[in-house]
Amino acid sequence: MRLSGSRVLLTGATGGIGQAMRQALRQQGARVLGVARAPLANEDTDTSMRWVQGDLRQPQDIARIAQAAVAWGVDTVVHAAGVPAFGAFEDLPPEQAAAVLQLNLWSPIALTQALLPHLKQMPASRVVFVGSALGRIGVPGSAVYGASKAGLHRLAEALRRELGGTRVAVQWLGPRATRTAFNSAQNEAFNRATGSASDTPEVVARALIDLLRSGAAERHIGFPERLAVRANGALGPLLDAGFRKHRDALFASPNPGVPT
Length: 260
Ligand SMILES: NC(=O)c1ccc[n+]([C@@H]2O[C@H](COP(=O)([O-])OP(=O)(O)OC[C@H]3O[C@@H](n4cnc5c(N)ncnc54)[C@H](OP(=O)(O)O)[C@@H]3O)[C@@H](O)[C@H]2O)c1
Known about the structure:
By secondary structure, the chain is of the alpha/beta class.
């Protein structure tokens, strides 16, 4: 699918991965409408980058963002906004769990619903959900975050099938750990202790471009993670013993109970 001239609504555009994505998209000749919580000024000289302000946890902001995107002529939506929740499950305050589910799962649902009537009218359009390897494999320390991304994966899968035969393509991008401010020092220590590989945001941005160009349904970043996703799907509980080192790393940290 051609990216040149396409109009991409990008949530999470101010984040580590979002910044790399907006740069990569513009290099491909796409125009980007970034969502930012803080108001950011549009430069009149640079029409390839526009901003719309809004908090994706607020229904009225979602309605306003969707309205602005429709008026702008959006044909591609990339849901990249997200918040982490690393730490022991029993220490995650319920209100923080609700906030994670609200941003990571509810907001892409609500924004996609608001945009769908418009996207169906476009000659060709696509919706990309940025998930996580942790949405496909349950890992100690990521129960609620993983639940939010697992829900997002099931949403993408069902919607892709529901919209089959329409002009709207639905795609899923599954990064593994990526070096951005998203990961706390505690999470990084956990990744080191468990030997989890991490990527730069540019690797994720390149994967997004490949995914959009290919029209493939899904793309998981990292060979061992791709394999692990398949093995987890096929073998599930038989892999539980392999997560002992993750459990040990989670509870070995000096302050394991503080989710970040
Ligand atoms: N980094 C990783 O290790 C990793 C791995 C796998 C998947 N992912 C996924 O990749 C995506 C991007 O992650 P990242 O590493 O770029 O994270 P990041 O650097 O922390 O950026 C998060 C983005 O989400 C936005 N956001 C947070 N709360 C929001 C709200 N209430 N309303 C609107 N926007 C909000 C932030 O905007 P503000 O500037 O307003 O805060 C920021 O643009 C997320 O969906 C994440 O789950 C990340």
